[in-house]
Design brief:
The complex is a heterodimer of chains A (316) and B (285). By secondary structure, chain A is of the alpha/beta class. Chain A folds into 2 domains: 5-52; 59-309, 2-enoyl-CoA Hydratase, Chain A, domain 1 (Alpha-Beta Complex), CATH 3.90.226.10. Chain A has helices at residues 8-27, 32-51, 55-62, 70-77, 119-124, 132-147, 165-169, 172-183, 200-204, 225-231, 239-245, 250-255, 274-293, 297-309, and strands spanning 80-83, 96-103, 106-113, 152-158, 190-199, 211-215, 219-221, 261-263, 314-315. In chain A, strands 1, 2, 3, 4, 5, 6, 7 and 8 form an 8-stranded mixed beta sheet that branches. With 285 residues, chain B is α/β, with parallel strands linked by helices. Classes of the chains: A alpha/beta (316), B alpha/beta (285). The structure holds zinc ion. Zinc ion binds at residues 30, 32-33, 35, 49, 51-52, 54 of chain B.
């Protein structure tokens, strides 16, 4: 498993514990007390590290290779899950997954960006960067949800919409714009979770929701810190500064009134315990849908509309 | 005072036009074909090069004067101003960038909205100003787009929006991104109200602007040669590590790929818009 740079002091302690354990086995000296002491220290160090994370460190966790992905989470939290494919226009985009699911007794339509956990998977998933057909697939599924009155659950995890020649030829901008417009008018509730990277318009294109929740170590941003650094700061090495300036952490995005809440992750980040993450998301879905099941469809649409209508800070 | 100083004071010449200091006359050199012409001739031709038809970028005031009935434009909500709520500083503080842009343009933001008449047809108009921080969309631009849409829902007159924008304004962070959702949502209500929306895509229209209200018109008109894209050519070249083909993401390319209805020369735009309003507008009387 790959470690993050800032976890180094922790990793050193873990290594020491392993050494002591094997030493006590081979030499038959009882080192339990010693081991316990270091384990306690490790826990303290871990708590300390994770209570002082900087925005660039949070970006690293959000992009972690072992970060729980949409499909895995959907399988973990669904009682049943039927994946669906294709936009009926061009092809099936593996960067976007979706289907029918039952979650905690609620029949829903689910959609998510899909990243991989190794190079091979990531190439197949295009690193979670959809082409227009991915967004059109998402729209097809959402329209089906509206038709059969099924709530929509979306999971956001993308560096952004793919910047490529074919994506432009097939209308990347139009595909994203269309989703924003159509999502505003659905009468079924839409619940969104930013589970990793919320990269710009490519993220928002499945994120016009009644409730937007962010996992504790996820980020949501108008542009990647790297992109912002090279364009605004004119210095690609200033991405750490850009990530702090853009206010992209879950805490900041909630404070700005763009996301509704933060979902706490297991100590050390969601990549250590996918199951725990899936349970937290599932609980949130169940409690949100309980609320919306009592609400009038036109009120559900109006609530979502007003939520986005009121976003913006200016002086008049 | 030199001619250059005088020119910059008058703010008559688009920043792309290279000014030549030839005594006695005022000349401009075309950025595209490098030919030289009288400023007067350039202005008479709607700021289109008389040699190669290169369309210079123009100001909102110039657009208004080319298309709408004289003095018919009544600005709406011109007083909304941006605020630096993230206290953002890159190579310069956002506050300072705003001040500078406001001073240079004599406007509070990168967009004006209002009502005007086109040969006596009432029209709701929004015009973006690329010279104001790259026409970027922050809270104010998003709010103005939304308000002119709401205005159109009430008065039922057709809506024209002229886009010229690099995309979302980074200095307002995630709140800028949300302006894409806000404006697109308002357009869904405009659709329900049955009011025609013509999006006129000018050079350049990219990023968050193209991926929201610019691409949601009932009719899409592009100015010749305009760059219209989601990702800019440079970002794409960095990603795929090769040069993009010539003409890629230009207006004519979008026409070929079915993303715009027509590419219309500036001199023909008024007639085209009139035809559309007559054929699609709300019945009179
Ligand atoms: Zn020329």
């Amino acid at each position: 498993m790959n470690h993050l740079e800032f976890e180094k002091p922790l990793i050193e302690l873990y290594e020491k514990i392993e050494q002591l354990k094997s030493l006590s086995k081979t030499s038959e000296i009882n080192l339990d007390q010693e081991i316990e002491k270091i384990e306690k220290r490790a826990l303290m160090v871990k708590k300390d590290i994770y209570s002082h994370l900087t925005p660039p460190q949070i970006v690293q966790i959000a992009r972690h290779q072992n970060r729980p992905d949409s499909l895995s989470l959907l399988h973990l939290m669904s009682d049943s899950f039927v994946p669906l494919h294709g936009d009926r226009l061009f092809r099936d985009d593996p960067s976007i997954v979706g289907g029918l699911a039952s979650i905690g007794g609620h029949k829903v339509v689910v959609i998510g960006h899909q990243k991989g956990h190794d190079t091979k998977e990531n190439i197949y998933r295009n690193f979670g960067m959809p082409h227009p057909e991915g967004y059109r697939k998402a729209l097809r599924l959402m329209k089906m949800a509206e038709k059969f009155k099924r709530p929509i659950v979306t999971l956001i995890d993308t560096p952004g919409a793919y910047p490529g020649i074919e994506a432009e030829e097939r209308g990347q901008a139009e595909a994203i714009a269309r989703n924003l417009k159509e999502m505003a008018a659905f009468t079924v509730p839409i619940i969104t979770f930013v589970i990793g990277e919320g990269g710009s318009g490519g993220a928002l294109a499945i994120g016009v929701a009644n409730k937007v929740h962010m996992l504790e170590y996820s980020v949501y941003s108008v542009i990647s810190p790297e992109g912002c650094a090279s364009i605004l700061f004119r210095d690609a090495t200033k991405s750490d500064l850009a990530s702090a300036s853009l206010k992209i952490t879950s805490e900041d995005v909630v404070r700005l009134g763009i996301a509704d809440g933060v979902i706490a992750e297991p100590l050390g980040g969601g990549h250590h315990d996918w199951n725990a993450v899936s349970k937290c998301i599932k609980n949130q879905i169940v409690s949100d849908l309980k609320l919306y099941s009592k609400m009038d469809p036109s009120d559900i649409m109006e609530e979502r509309y007003q939520k986005f209508r009121n976003m913006g800070q200016y002086s008049s | 005072m030199s001619i250059l100083d005088w020119l910059s004071k008058k703010q008559k010449v688009s920043p792309q036009a290279e000014k030549l200091n030839i005594p006695g006359d005022l000349w401009v050199k075309c950025k595209s074909c490098s030919e030289v012409m009288f400023i007067k001739d350039l202005e008479k031709s709607f700021k289109v090069c008389i040699h190669c038809e290169y369309h210079f970028r123009i100001t909102p005031d110039e657009r208004l004067s080319y298309l709408f009935d004289k003095k018919s434009f009544k600005e709406i909500d011109g007083g909304i101003k941006p605020i630096d709520f993230l206290e953002f500083t890159d190579t310069e503080p956002y506050k300072k960038r705003i001040e500078l842009a406001q001073k240079k343009s004599n406007r509070s933001e990168a967009m004006i909205i209002g009502e005007a008449t086109l040969n006596n047809h009432p029209i709701n108009v929004g015009i973006m100003d690329f010279s104001f921080m790259g026409g970027s969309m922050g809270s104010v631009v998003g709010e103005k787009v939304t308000r002119i849409i709401e205005n159109a829902i009430i008065n039922k007159a057709p809506l024209f929006i002229f886009t010229s924008s690099g995309g979302a304004r980074m200095q307002e962070g995630i709140t800028s991104l949300m302006q894409m959702a806000k404006t697109s949502a308002a357009l869904s209500r405009l659709s329900d109200a049955g009011v025609p929306y013509v999006s006129i895509l000018c050079d350049p229209t990219t990023g968050g602007t193209s991926a929201s209200f610019a691409m949601l018109g009932d009719i899409h008109i592009a100015e010749p040669g305009a760059l219209i894209s989601f990702a800019g050519p440079r970002v794409i070249e960095q990603t795929i590590r090769q040069k993009v083909p010539k003409g890629f993401q230009r207006a004519e390319f979008l026409l070929e790929h079915g993303m715009v209805d027509m590419v219309v020369k500036r001199k023909d735009l008024k007639q085209r818009l009139l035809d559309i309003v007559t054929l699609l507008g709300v019945q009179e009387g």
